[in-house]
Write a structure and sequence with these properties.
The chain is α+β, with helices and mostly antiparallel strands and about 600 residues long. It has 4 domains: about 35-125, Nucleic acid-binding proteins (OB fold (Dihydrolipoamide Acetyltransferase, E2P)); about 160-290 and about 555-600, 2-Layer Sandwich (BirA Bifunctional Protein, domain 2), CATH 3.30.930; about 315-440, Gyrase A, domain 2, CATH 3.30.1360; about 450-550, Bira Bifunctional Protein, Domain 2 (BirA Bifunctional Protein, domain 2), CATH 3.30.930. About 30% of the residues lie in helices and about 25% in strands. The chain has helices spanning about 5-25, 80-85, 145-150, 150-155, 160-180, 220-230, 265-285, 300-305, 325, 330-335, 355-365, 395-400, 420-435, 480-485, 515-525, 530-540, 555-565, 595-600; strands at about 40-55, 60-65, 70-75, 95-105, 115-125, 185, 205, 215, 235-240, 255-265, 295-300, 320, 340-345, 375-380, 385, 410-415, 445-450, 455-460, 465, 495-500, 500-510, 550-555. An 8-stranded mixed sheet has the order 6-9-10-22-21-20-17-11, sandwiched between helices. The longest helix is centred in the N-terminal third of the chain and has 22 residues, at about 160-180.
Amino acid sequence: MIVLENLSEVYDLIFIFVQLIRKNMYRTHTCGELRIQDTAKQVTLSGWVQRSRDLGGMTFVDLRDRYGITQLVFNMEASADLRREARRLGREFVIQASGIVAERSNKNPKMPTGDIEIIVNTLTVLNESVTPPFTIEAETDGGDELRMKYRYLDLRREPLKNNLLLRHRMAFETRNYFNTHQFIEIETPVLIKSTPEGARDFVVPSRVNPGQFYALPQSPQTFKQLLMVAGYDRYVQIVKCFRDEDLRADRQPEFSQIDCEMSFVQQEDILNMFEGMVRHLFKTIKGIEFSELLPRLTYNQALEQYGNDKPDIRVEMKIHDLTAVAKGKGFGVIDSAPFTGGICAKGCSEYSRKQLDELTEFVKKPQIGAKGLLYVKYGTDSGIKSSVDKFYGAEDLKQWLEPFHAEAGDLLLVLTGERIPTLKALGELRLEMGNRLNLRRKGEFKPLWVLDFPLLEWDNEVKRFFAMHHPFTSPKPEDISLLDTDPGKVRANAYDFVINGVEVGGGSIRIHSETLQKKMFQTLGFTDEDAERQFGFLMQAFRYGAPPHGGIAFGFDRLVSLFAGEESIRDVIAFPKNNAARDVMIDSPAEISAEQLQELSIKVEVRKV
């Protein structure tokens, strides 16, 4: 029995105990932790060999873990055997190294640990590695598909590691913000019922209910509305959602969204709460504060001024309607067109014929659809010249320039045609000019709200209206009567949040009246039986006192990719799918066995394409 007479002896015993434990530890410190003040300490590190350099009588090894890189030194004079062991280390070997922290003679200011190195006295190889299929460096030689196949190796690279750490911080700060505003995080089901609206569902067969299927949720929409009926007036969830749709850089078949709903609120309450969330994230994550209220545009204003409903307002060149001033001069292209509009590119009057021809080819691309491009050059010395000088004199063209407040040195680019397609083409042209003029700068953020979307959009193929957002979006109260007379003119009580031309969030005030919800279903072409079969549970819930409520969902992957400065959300998701919706690492989707199909009462018949 040990008798301790004073506190000092207690501390000494604890120190000895800790040292004994540390002898059996894989590491006493991480590879990003040690600094100059740790000089002369005996330490143990574990990690992966980033690279090895053999220089005369010494071998240097960079050891990497999640936290950083530390340089190890193996000295021939200290131990020839140890150095021989070090020289056989290959890239990505997992090792444990113990030694003394020393000050580096050739410090590396680019590394947090660049002032020190470890003079190694013990080396243990914990696991060897075959040669990786690509170099695990920030700038790698691996192509996208190869890195996707070996994603667990790709995730060792600094850029992806930083993206996942950023994602973690943003998730933490999101939850922190909502927790301080009395939101409750509640999980909603993953196996739900298939619905006909929106994108295609992923379906899951039920073994215990042969011939019947679950669907994976495209969003928890109905469940969060049911939570409002249940009285949980502030709900939030960072939730997985699933959509079986064609992919692109900012889409994945499974994705995460910040899903929220609030009761007893109007549109202004939602906008203020979630603008607050965005401000909180920019301040805590990026150190950016927005001094004023964020801009708000109606859907019509966004379309008329920027050519789309998710404008990148870093590019300040707005579209102006030139129809009235351009018509009536005998130029058939303009006189026969319902709409003529343009944008003004500051300081571009010296654009060459080749540059203008490139822009003409750009707007004539099938996905843009313009038939040609007109221009007006306001030269500093040469005056006003244009591609339509035959029909318009200098005084006529000055009227074109006036809405833009154009100055000498500016270039006016003009398109003509049907109104909506031409506005959208001008929207694409202004973004192209924004790219050419370096106006869409990374690290600059211009968020805004877009409000008052159309409630419905007409589909010419099936000859019926579809919900522009979803069937539970409330019309503007003053537009409800138009559901009977002119549904296409009804505005939704809906809003989108846009950053740098990317829609990162969208939501609406919901319908909470059973009568209005039935009316909405009828307008969308649902029979009473269809509505009852698909949404009877929600209609039933509304009969038990549904409060006024509304909400929004932010695309969490998109938000993280914007903060990270990445073009694709794949770069901020740990294990994404490729553009064919495949996980090439685990080879999924894949066929299942005949026995599994039989259990599920499923017969597979592959159609030839």
